[in-house]
Structures are given as structure tokens and as C-alpha cells.
Specification:
The structure holds 2 protein chains of 2 kinds. In chain A, about 35% of the residues lie in helices and about 25% in strands. By secondary structure, chain A is an alpha/beta fold. The relative contact order of chain A is 0.11. The two termini of chain B are about 15 Å apart. The chains are: A alpha/beta, B mainly alpha. Chains A and B meet through helix 10 and helix 11 of A and helix 8, helix 9 and helix 10 of B.
Chain lengths: ~500, ~300
């Protein structure tokens, strides 16, 4: 389309054979907000990474003001006037607001000294021009909320580099961590950006928000742009259909309804950061899935259950337990597999056997004190076979394993103690398809042997394929638990959005 | 080439140091008497470096070991001055080390102060305490019983007693770090504290106990020193901390994943011990000796990290 500020056409990208983007196109005009929507894995983040110069596309073109450009590095993206606003902002928390706004630029000075008065006045004027008056230029950024930090980054974007003025703002889930009032402030700033003829590409899961602030909405599905419609004509129902694309398509084969046993894990009235009044029962032999949009709560669950709760009770096998730290959870018969396998899961410099043995050292030891390496080896080999681990042997360093096999080491560790319940956070994140199916088969088998399994996942297909019941979180609350038979991909997403009639 | 330097550089350096002194001190360096002497001279450093390895396995430091050693010597001497028996003097000194170390550990793991700051503060406090208790003077003379001072001069089966103490510490700490559940957990904390916590390792008590052991090791070294010189003064442990950390670092350059391992710490101690002994015999000025020792430590760690950077 002629006259577009940013025009993306037919972008393609595959990672090691897995297609992330197939055919993505969109136009963004000056003074316009385009919302980019799509399910997890639809290709939104790959598209953003291409714009940011972090990933190079396999095919397709990016035009800026009619000229084809190659965004080969973050620096080039910056020079072309692209700015990225997301939750992990690069602000220096220990400096003041004004210093952050002027970061990387020459401070106004006199006789080689910083003219603080002028610096603060500039910063205040810069914020005021965006309609922001509640942030003092002298305040420490460490005291500011995430929302205010975003506003500072936006203000700074206009001061940076006169040779590369900010033209396009890409905002990735900017409101995921914002309170209502902060979101409103951000929306007012977005209106001001539009008035300045900037283009805004707004990525969000939040339907209400998108319908309220976007001019147009582009939906990505399976790496292709599937819908491009003016926000005025969009409805929530139409958007959900466009995102799932399979309103009446048959759901993947639901997990065979297992024989549900006794309650292994009962949680009542749990209060924790990001979660409110959480109560649920996990039965032996079932796989219970927890889902929600970004920021809705399930991502805090593992932490809350292993010592992060301020109130509430947890009972395991009918007995109330106090879990002050993860060690208590393991001891009580829970097994954990945290989300970030590299930073929270594995000891990358140690070998497979040591990683698998870590929570079970006492049981494997002699006299409960001395390591028994042959028992560790034997356990690692047994469990490795069980989880279909591909490795050269139990002494291979976990650092040298592929992502899928690293994930399997975490499962080997979790199942090694014959736990009563497993708590899994994003069990197949960043794992290839083959390893994924191995993991699903393993979880079904474990459930069949009487373990209760709780899966927190943002992959709806996974949840629908694996779980017999699905708990849905909105705004930190578990609002309902629905049997898998009653769900379709469409209905599940609709419920996450709080639109139960959408399906 | 660089990978080779990283893997074996410190071993080669150790060999070079040994051969150099062998050539330049043909009659006095490689004699069984001198080699025994070296092991005895470095036995105090060895004990401190070994227990420092426990703390460094978790990725922490203990800067207070030097003044802890001085304080332990002073405490023992004061018990002697008050007419107490040897066993009481030794027990009091060891208790002081254990308690001082436990306080460090408490500050680090339960209060949440960075080890560098907590133990730096402890260094100053313990040093002040040692001066206060001793009145700033060396305690010596008839108050120190010969049964106590005789120990360091004695030998068992031709091996100096102090060397045997260091050897005993080596064996115990090797078993603790390499063959016990406790040691495995310490290395897990050092590898990735958050992953270890989520895998059921109770970090706080472990961290506290490791610092307590480091304090205990420093107290043992302080007693060894006091026995050797039959006296105690508030500065006698002063050089121990830097040398101990240097020895662990030298050892880390030899280990496979750059982890502190007590057997390699021993190698680090041997390098420092040979340097000290050989350079003294060659009448090298002690300031120059410090410069040479410091340069060798930097060279070893630099070759190791250069090799690593090239690999990564």
C-alpha cells in the first residue's frame, strides 16, 4: 500500500525446520495504531524480532516509507526510527528520571559541568509534551512503577539521536504488568504519539484493550496473516475465530478419561503474589491443566505452592503440610519442573546423573551421608530410559544436551522419587516436536500409575491434548475448571478472554 | 594452543617453578629435609585454603580468615595465661572460630549481606577484638606450656606434626566436598543457586554451616601458628587470607569446569609454598617476592580465562 510508514510483505522464517512465519504481511500508516494479535506460537514474537533486527527473515520484504530496508542489526532498526517498548525495559534503575531520559546523549552543561537545572527542566518539558505530569524528573527510576518506566522510555525515544527520529513504536504486551490507571496513562500517550504522526504496532492478548485503542487489527495464525480489519468492525467473537481458525474443527483427541483417584493435592484459599483465593483439588491419575492469558496468574503457581504463599492451606494425601521452601515440597512427595530449564532447572556444568540425583541425594547415599555414585548412575540410566533421554551416558554434562533432552533430564529428576504429584511449568517450552510427544507419553503413563499431574501451560493445543480438566485464570483468580470434553480450542481461548458464550 | 594453556598452564607453571629452583639451588632445594620444610611452612596456609575451598565451592568468599586465625591464637594464649590446660585453650580457640564463622554465615544467608561485605566487616571486628584481648602485645613466655609449643616442633613417623595436621584436613575436606551429600549440595549452590533451591536444596543452613567451617579452619591454623612460634600476637594471621584465596584460584584454573576442588587447591598451595621457600633461599627481597607471586597468580588466572573466552 502506498504511503505506508511500515509495510511488511510475505515474511517467512523457519527455525531449524520449524516454521515460525509463513506469510506475514501488514501495513502501518503514520498516525495509526495497528494491533497485532494471535495465539501463542502464531509468529508474533518472530515478527517483532525481525523488525528489531534480532532475527533475519528467510524471505519477504520490509519497506519503510516506501523504501525496501534490511534490518540486519538492532542498531539499524534504531536508525530507521523503530523503537521497542516491552516489559524488560533498558532503564538504569539507580539513576534519576531525567538522567534516564538523557542517557547516551550529552547532558546540558556549562563549563564542563552538568547543568542539573537545565537537565531537569528539559526532561520535565519532554514528559509534559507527552501529557505526562505526574513523574518528577528528579525521582529515582527504581522507585517508579513499570508503567512509568515505559513512559520514560517513550519520552527518551524522542530525544535520542536527531538523525534517527522515532517514527514507529512497537509495543509488546505493554499492559501485561500495568494497573488500570497506568494503562490509561499509556493509552493517552499513545494518542499523543499518533498525533505526532508516529505509527504504533501494538501487540496484545487483551481484546477489550485492542478494540478500544487500535485503528486496525491484524491477526496472525500459524505464521500467516489471516485477518486485517478496521477495529470499528471487529468483534471479540470474530477475533477469537480468526485466531483459532477452527471454530468447528474437531479438537485433538482428548486425553483418555482416566480413572480419577483420591485427592493427592488439595489447595484452599491460597493467597500469593499474582494469585488470589486459589482453591483446587488435584486427583491421583489426572492431568490438570492451568491456563490464562499473559499475567493472568498460573505462571505464579509453582512459586506460590512452594513457599511463596501468604495465606491458605495445602494438603497432600489428606494431611495439611507447611511448605516453606521447595525442599519441603519435594520431601512431602511433590516433584517440581520449573519453567526456565537453564536458569531455574539444571546445573549446566554438572552431569546428567548429578542433576537427576539432586533432590534424592539422601535416599541414594550411604548412611544418609556419603554419595553413592553407582546408585546415582543406575538411577540416571533407569530414568533416562523411562523419559527416552538421548545422551552419550549418565556422565554427559547437561550443558551439551539439546533443549528437549535438557527438559527430559528435569523430568527424569521429577519422576525419580516416585512423587505423588508433579507440578510442571511449561513442560514443553522450546522443545522440538519429537521430544514433545515423548514427554506427553511419559505424563500419560505417570498419570496412569496414579500420580496427580498439574501442568501450567500457555500452549492451548498442549493443554487440550493432554489434560482431562482445565483450570482457567483471569486476573489472578482461578475462575473455573472445565472438563476437556466441554472444550474446543475456540472455547478455551474465549474463556481465557472471559467470553464464555464466544464458543 | 590457548586451549592447551588453559588446561595445563598452571601445571606447567608449577613444573617450571620447581625445575627453576632445582637448577638454581642445586644443593638445598630438592632435599628431603627442605621439601619437608616446605610442607611444614605452608601447613597453616594449607588448612585455611582447604576450608576456603568449602566456601568458594558455593561461589562465596571469606575474607575474615586471617584475623580469625590471629584471634584464635590470642584466645588460646589467654587461656594459658589464666592457667588453663592445653585442651581448654584449644577448645576455646576452636569454639571462637566456629562461632565467628557461624556469625558470618548467619549474616550472609539469613540477613542477606553480600559475603564480601559481611566478611570484610568481620575481618575488621575480629582484628580489633584480637588487639583488644591481647592488649596489642605478643603473648609469650612461660605461660605457653611446652606441651603446646612442642607439638609444632615434633614429628610423627618422620613427618612434621603440622604437615600431618594439614594432611588430615585435606583428607577430611576432600571426603566432605567430593564424597558427601553435603559437598554435592554446596557445589549445586555454586553451580546455580536458584536451580539448586528449586531442586530441594536448603540453601540457608548450608551456607551458614560452610562459613562456620571456614572459621573453624582459620582457628586451627591460628593454633598451629601459635604452637609453632610458642606465642600469639594479634597480627600473625594477616597474610593468610590473600594467599588462601590465591591458592584456591590457582587450583580453579586446573579443574575441568573451573570449579574449586580441594585437591587442586593443594596444588595452588604447593606453588605458593615453593615460591616462598625458593625465593627466600635465593635471598630475594620479600617485596620482590610478593611481586613475583602476585604476577604468577595473575598469569595463571589470565591464561585460564583467555582460553575460556576463546572456547566460548
Amino acid at each position: 500500500m502506498a504511503g505506508a510508514l511500515l509495510s511488511i510483505s510475505h515474511l517467512r522464517k523457519a527455525y531449524a525446520g520449524a516454521t515460525a512465519l509463513k506469510d506475514a504481511s501488514l501495513d502501518l500508516h503514520a498516525g495509526e495504531t495497528v494491533a497485532l494479535m494471535g495465539e501463542n506460537g502464531a509468529g508474533k514474537s518472530t515478527l517483532i524480532k525481525i523488525l528489531a533486527g534480532a532475527v533475519s527473515p528467510d524471505g519477504g520484504e520490509v519497506h519503510l516509507e516506501g523504501r525496501a530496508v534490511r534490518l540486519a542489526s538492532p542498531r539499524q532498526a534504531h536508525q530507521h526510527g523503530l523503537r521497542f517498548i516491552h516489559q524488560e525495559l533498558n532503564v538504569v534503575a539507580t539513576l534519576s528520571v531525567a538522567e534516564n531520559i538523557f542517557l547516551g546523549r550529552a547532558y546540558p552543561g556549562r563549563f564542563g559541568l552538568v547543568d542539573w537545572r537545565r537537565l531537569h527542566a528539559h526532561a520535565a518539558a519532554c514528559l509534559a509534551s507527552l501529557g505526562v505530569s505526574h513523574i518528577a524528573p528528579t525521582a529515582r527510576v527504581s522507585r517508579l512503577s513499570v508503567g512509568d518506566r515505559m513512559l520514560i522510555r517513550i519520552a527518551a525515544a524522542f530525544l535520542e539521536d536527531a538523525s534517527a527520529p522515532a517514527r514507529i513504536f512497537v509495543m509488546d504486551e505493554p499492559t501485561a504488568a500495568l494497573a488500570g490507571e497506568e494503562s490509561q496513562r499509556l493509552f493517552r500517550v499513545i494518542a499523543e504519539l499518533k498525533r505526532r504522526q508516529c505509527g504504533i504496532l501494538y501487540v496484545s492478548h487483551r481484546l477489550d484493550e485492542v478494540l478500544a485503542i487500535a485503528d486496525r487489527i491484524v491477526v496472525l495464525r500459524d505464521g500467516e496473516s489471516r485477518a486485517n480489519l478496521p477495529a470499528a468492525q471487529a468483534t471479540k467473537r470474530a477475533l477469537i475465530e480468526a485466531m483459532t481458525g477452527r471454530e468447528n474443527a474437531e479438537a485433538p483427541p482428548p486425553a483418555a478419561a482416566p480413572a480419577r483417584g483420591d485427592v493427592v493435592l488439595a489447595v484452599a484459599g491460597l493467597e500469593a503474589p499474582g494469585l488470589r483465593e486459589l482453591s483446587f483439588d488435584l486427583h491421583a491419575g489426572e492431568i490438570l491443566g492451568f491456563v490464562g492469558l499473559a499475567g493472568a496468574g498460573p505462571e505464579h503457581l509453582l512459586k506460590a505452592l512452594t513457599g511463596g504463599a501468604a495465606a491458605g492451606t495445602i494438603a497432600i494425601g489428606g494431611a495439611v503440610v507447611r511448605l516453606r521452601e521447595p525442599a519441603d515440597a519435594w520431601r512431602a512427595g511433590l516433584a517440581l519442573a520449573p519453567r526456565e530449564r537453564r536458569s531455574e532447572g539444571l546445573l549446566l556444568t554438572q552431569d546428567i546423573a548429578a542433576n537427576v540425583a539432586l533432590p534424592h541425594l539422601r535416599r541414594l547415599s550411604r548412611l544418609r551421608t556419603f554419595l553413592n555414585r553407582s546408585a546415582e548412575r543406575a538411577q540416571a540410566i533407569d530414568m533416562g530410559v523411562r523419559v527416552k533421554l538421548k545422551a552419550s551416558g549418565p556422565r554427559q554434562k547437561t550443558r551439551t544436551l539439546s533443549g528437549g533432552n535438557q527438559q527430559k533430564v528435569m523430568f527424569a529428576r521429577a519422576v525419580a522419587g516416585a512423587p505423588r504429584a508433579l507440578l510442571l511449568d511449561e513442560p514443553t517450552r522450546g522443545v522440538d516436536v519429537g521430544a514433545k510427544f515423548d514427554i506427553y507419553a511419559l505424563l500419560r503413563e505417570l498419570a496412569a500409575t496414579g500420580a496427580g499431574i498439574l501442568v501450567v501451560s500457555s500452549d492451548h493445543e498442549e493443554v487440550l491434548g493432554l489434560c482431562s480438566r482445565v483450570g482457567i485464570f483471569r486476573g489472578g483468580r482461578l475462575v473455573e475448571i472445565v472438563a476437556n470434553e466441554d472444550l474446543t480450542p475456540h472455547a478455551l481461548l474465549a474463556r481465557c478472554y472471559g467470553e464464555p458464550r464466544g464458543g | 594452543m590457548l586451549a592447551f594453556a588453559r588446561r595445563y598452564g598452571t601445571w606447567i607453571g608449577m613444573g617450571v617453578v620447581f625445575v627453576y629452583f632445582w637448577i638454581h639451588l642445586p644443593d638445598t632445594f630438592v632435599t628431603s629435609r627442605n621439601l619437608m620444610n616446605i610442607t611444614q611452612q605452608m601447613s597453616m596456609l594449607a588448612v585455611v585454603a582447604f576450608t576456603m575451598t568449602i566456601v568458594m565451592a558455593m561461589g562465596d568468599f571469606d575474607l575474615s580468615v586471617g584475623s580469625m586465625a590471629s584471634l584464635a591464637g590470642v584466645v588460646a594464649a589467654l587461656v594459658f595465661v589464666a592457667g588453663g590446660p592445653s585442651w581448654l585453650a584449644i577448645a576455646a580457640a576452636l569454639a571462637a572460630g566456629l562461632v565467628g564463622g557461624a556469625i558470618n554465615g548467619f549474616l550472609v544467608s539469613y540477613v542477606g549481606i553480600m559475603p564480601f561485605i559481611a566478611t570484610l566487616g568481620a575481618l575488621t571486628v575480629l582484628s580489633g577484638l584480637a588487639f583488644r584481648l591481647s592488649g596489642g602485645k605478643t603473648i609469650f613466655g612461660s605461660a605457653i606450656p611446652s606441651s603446646f609449643s612442642g607439638f609444632a616442633r615434633g614429628a610423627t613417623f618422620a613427618a612434621p606434626n603440622l604437615t600431618l595436621v594439614a594432611l588430615g584436613a585435606l583428607v577430611v575436606i576432600h571426603v566432605v566436598l567430593e564424597h558427601s551429600v553435603y559437598g554435592r549440595r554446596l557445589y549445586a549452590i555454586g553451580g546455580n543457586a536458584e536451580a539448586a533451591r528449586l531442586a530441594g536444596v536448603r540453601i540457608k543452613p548450608l551456607r551458614m554451616s560452610a562459613f562456620a567451617l571456614s572459621g573453624l579452619g582459620a582457628a586451627v591454623a591460628g593454633l598451629m601458628y601459635a604452637s609453632r612460634v610458642a606465642s600469639a600476637n594479634p597480627t600473625q594471621g594477616a597474610g593468610l587470607m590473600l594467599d588462601a584465596i590465591a591458592a584456591v584460584f590457582l587450583g580453579m584454573t586446573m579443574s575441568d569446569e573451573g570449579q574449586p576442588r580441594v585437591i587442586f587447591t593443594l596444588a595452588g598451595v604447593l606453588i605458593l609454598g615453593m615460591l616462598g621457600n625458593g625465593l627466600t633461599q635465593m635471598n630475594v627481597d620479600s617485596y620482590v617476592r610478593d611481586m613475583i607471586t602476585g604476577s604468577i597468580i595473575i598469569a595463571a588466572v589470565a591464561s585460564s580465562s583467555l582460553g575460556r573466552a576463546r572456547e566460548g
